[in-house]
């Protein structure tokens, strides 16, 4: 799938957006730009040692590890104190939030610290992930001579490295976001190139992107806040890339999985917010109509699977967010859009998310059919 070039006024506006990045690239030609790697954590003491040691072992020569402790009550503090001594001279900075601010609020704490400290490149990394030694060096290399690229994501593999977790994120014209290439063998990983969005779990960002587009939207708390940032970046003329040679490994849902029903609730809560904020007016009706249909079917499916409480709670929260923050966020995001609809269509996925969604829809149809037949038989 191609991303399509910007043309006319879009290209001129994108050139202006990238001007500071061009200057930064030129100034960095003969020096190494320091990178701050922000890791949010919540009661993840057991996950942190392999994660942080892998970052301390990076071949990139100037790395500062920034851990944001989101109100942990386990022995995270002691583990971090021990790790600081173990990985020296690589700096380990710890920022402690009094409460759990979610993924979005947690990483924003670290990003603000990095911006104030003057870092021009900021990476995000999950506490349940481990990076190959060349992960950062290859991500940074992908930015070279590409001033419009605001973020670069990696080949994110599932724990044992056999299967892919993601090679970036896509947003489809049914109003749903999904991780690209999830579940396929590592050997089938695509070549480096443009992608719609970047996973917040293992991605490198230009500081200038945050200064221009803003930080993660804390109204999401967790789930899809990274897609929201990628969408806003695309609308503002930035490009997103994936780098096959930058590799990291992900245990997946080691934090959110500890809260029963959390993922289901946040999915139903945040997908409508993602749509109403970011989809431009000319696309809102066709995408919105498809979205409502698929969202309703997913809600029914969750009830049939015994996950109705979380799904309904998320849907109720989505309705409240629509009126309290969704419309306000939409006005702000759409006012800053500089790309045209043709370009946006070119970077979106056409149709259902591949394979897994189609399989889920077939299962849903079967469940609905069986439920209907069972009701008739009981009558």
Structural descriptors:
379 residues; alpha/beta; single chain; 18% strand; Spore Coat Polysaccharide Biosynthesis Protein SpsA, Chain A; 10-stranded mixed beta sheet; disordered C terminus; globular; disordered N terminus
Structure summarized in a few sentences:
The protein is an alpha/beta fold. Helices cover about 50% and strands about 20% of the residues.
- Could you please say which CATH topology of the largest domain applies here? Spore Coat Polysaccharide Biosynthesis Protein SpsA, Chain A
Order of helices and strands: HHEHEHEHEEHEEEEEEHHEHHHHH
Shape: globular
Which CATH class of the largest domain?
Alpha Beta
Percent in helix? 40-55%
| Average pLDDT taken over every residue | 88
Could you describe the largest sheet, including whether it forms a barrel?
10 strands, mixed
Structural class: alpha/beta
What is the CATH homology-level superfamily of the largest domain? Spore Coat Polysaccharide Biosynthesis Protein SpsA, Chain A
Beta-strand content: 15-25%
How many structural domains does the protein architecture include?
A: 2
Number of strands: 12
Radius of gyration: 21 Å
Report how far the terminal alpha carbons are from each other: 50 Å
Label the CATH architecture of the largest domain.
Alpha-Beta Complex
């Amino acid at each position: 799938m191609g991303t399509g070039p910007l043309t006319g006024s879009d290209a001129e506006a994108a050139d202006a957006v990238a001007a500071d990045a061009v200057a930064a690239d030129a100034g960095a030609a003969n020096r190494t730009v320091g990178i701050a790697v922000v890791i949010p954590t919540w009661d993840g003491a057991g996950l942190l040692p392999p994660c942080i040691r892998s970052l301390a072992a990076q071949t990139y020569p100037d790395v500062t590890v920034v851990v944001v402790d989101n109100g942990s009550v386990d022995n995270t503090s002691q583990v971090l104190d021990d790790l600081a001594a173990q990985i020296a001279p690589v700096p380990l900075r710890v920022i402690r939030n009094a409460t759990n601010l979610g993924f979005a609020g947690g990483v924003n704490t670290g990003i603000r610290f990095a911006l104030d400290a003057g870092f021009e490149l900021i990476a995000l990394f999950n506490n349940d992930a481990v990076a190959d030694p060349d992960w950062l060096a290859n991500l940074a290399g992908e930015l070279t001579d590409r001033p419009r690229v605001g973020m670069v994501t990696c080949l994110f593999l599932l724990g044992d490295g056999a299967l892919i977790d993601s090679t970036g994120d896509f947003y489809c014209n049914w109003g749903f976001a999904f991780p690209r290439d999830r579940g396929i063998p590592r050997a089938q990983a695509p070549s480096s190139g443009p992608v719609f969005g970047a996973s917040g779990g293992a991605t490198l960002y230009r500081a200038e992107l945050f200064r221009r587009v803003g930080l993660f939207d804390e109204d999401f708390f967790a789930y899809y806040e990274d897609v929201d940032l990628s969408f806003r970046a695309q609308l503002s003329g930035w490009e997103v890339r994936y780098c096959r040679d930058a590799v990291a490994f992900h245990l997946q849902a080691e934090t959110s999985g500890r809260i029963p029903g959390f993922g289901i609730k946040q999915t139903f809560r945040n997908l409508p917010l993602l749509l109403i904020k970011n989809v431009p007016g000319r696309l809102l009706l066709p995408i919105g109509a498809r979205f409502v249909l698929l969202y309703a079917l997913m809600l029914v499916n969750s009830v049939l699977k015994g996950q109705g409480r979380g799904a309904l709670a998320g849907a109720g929260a989505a309705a409240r967010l629509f009126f309290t923050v969704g419309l306000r966020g939409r006005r702000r995001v759409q006012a800053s859009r500089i790309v045209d609809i043709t370009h946006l269509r070119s970077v979106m996925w056409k149709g259902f998310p591949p394979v897994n969604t189609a399989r889920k829809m077939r299962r849903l149809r079967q469940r609905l059919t069986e439920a209907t037949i069972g009701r008739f038989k009981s009558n």
